[in-house]
Amino acid sequence: MSAAAASGAHVPVLLDEAIVALAIAPGETHVDGTFGAGGYSSAMLDRGAARVFAFDRDPDAIRAGDALAAASEGRLTLVEERFSRMRQALAERGVPQVDGVALDIGVSSMQLDEPGRGFSFQSDGPLDMRMSRTGESAADFINEASEEDIADVLYAYGEEPKSRRIALAIVAARPIERTGQLANVVRKALGHHPGTKKDPATRTFQALRIYVNEELDELEGGLEAAEQVLKPGGRLAVVTFHSLEDRVVKRFLRERSGSVPSASRHVPARAAAADPSFDAVAKPVRAGEAEVATNPRARSATLRVARRTAASPWKSSNEGARI
Q1: What is the DSSP string of 212-262?
Q2: Which of the four pLDDT bands, split at 50, 70 and 90, describes residue 272?
Q3: Which of 106, 123, 155, 200 sits at a 20 to 30 Å CA gap from 75?
Q4: What is the CATH number of the domain that holds 166?
Q5: Residue 55: strand, helix, or coil
Q6: Kind of pairing between the strands at 285-286 and 29-32
Q7: 97 and 20: one domain?
């Protein structure tokens, strides 16, 4: 079975590069931390992985993957769970360690393309954005939070320089229940002119999605979980799509590899808090021109790869990224 076949029209960015980096050998056990449409899981099985444990907190993705799991003859196990809990979920299934972990961070094309999920303003729909379909929705937050809290979220997770102006407009327009309604509020607040290259609502929607799904906390927890479950020599491959995500991965791997930058270039680098638990095995990889031409989303993608050492896992930082 091919990755393309398994995932229909959705082809993960940098898939081939990530799978090669995992160096999958026949008989190994691997984790696909972000199942989505099954592209990574299918490619892992094609490479000879004896077992693949695929995680996704989106119940729709798990249901859609039932056919692939059935066709795998027991080699693919779907787990409806956050990837930050992979250690506990694997232990419950009698799997203490694995040979590789892949994380393809961010929202999937299937989620973006379904108006009813509320992730995108391209088509009007309910302002939801919840990957797991549980908990606080984007509408809940913007209709109940203070103007200050909304502005802080837009600035921190959308890097929106005009967050205060947008927050003021949102509060004045409440209640806001639809994606189209919110997009128009943002456009009006920023004086949007139709035809400009980037819609001004983009940063606001990114920020709310990251906040509602606790994505940066989840990424930090997922990296720590991968550190705990990978065998010595095991590979970690992470694909990110914007600078906030990539900074989390870059910082984590620098710390865990013992290369911690100092505050000043005139001061020696700080010593690592423990023995290095990872070795960087390659420079960051970005999509080539051909992939970007067929999939514009690939333009911002970055793949980082590291190999687990024999050192013990570091203690959890317990430092949440959420405001």
Answers
A1: HTTHHHHHHHHHHHHHHHEEEEEEEEEEE-SHHHHHHHHHHHHHHTT-B--
A2: low
A3: 106
A4: 1.10.150.170
A5: strand
A6: unpaired
A7: yes
In a domain, 316, yes or no: no
Provide the 3-class DSSP secondary structure of residue 279.
strand
- Exposure string over 20-41, b if 16+ CB within 10 A, otherwise e: ebbbbeeebbbbbbbbbbbbbb
Is 119 among the domain residues?
no
User: For residue 310, which amino acid is it?
Assistant: A
Domain final residue pick, 212, 247, 272: 212
- Answer with the one of 212, 231, 255 that is the final residue of a domain: 212
Do 152 and 16 share a domain, yes or no? Answer: no
Q: Residue 1 pLDDT more than 70? A: no
SS3 assignment, position 3: helix
Q: Are 147 and 202 in contact (CB under 8 A)?
A: no
Q: What is the pTM of this model?
A: 0.89
2 — pLDDT class (breaks 50, 70, 90): very low
Long-range contacts of 72-80 (CB under 8 A, 24+ apart): 72/45, 75/45, 75/49, 75/50, 75/51, 76/41, 76/45, 76/51, 76/52, 77/51, 77/52, 77/53, 78/35, 78/54, 79/53, 79/54, 79/55, 80/56
Question: How far is 161 from 40, CA to CA, in rounded Å?
Answer: 36
Q: Residue 286 and residue 304: Cα distance in Å, rounded? A: 9
Q: Say which amino acid occupies 240.
A: T
Q: Collapse the DSSP code of 185 into the 3-class scheme (helix H, G, I; strand E, B; otherwise coil) and give the result.
A: helix
The distance from CA 24 to its chain's CA centroid, rounded to whole angstroms, is: 22
End-to-end CA, the chain = 43
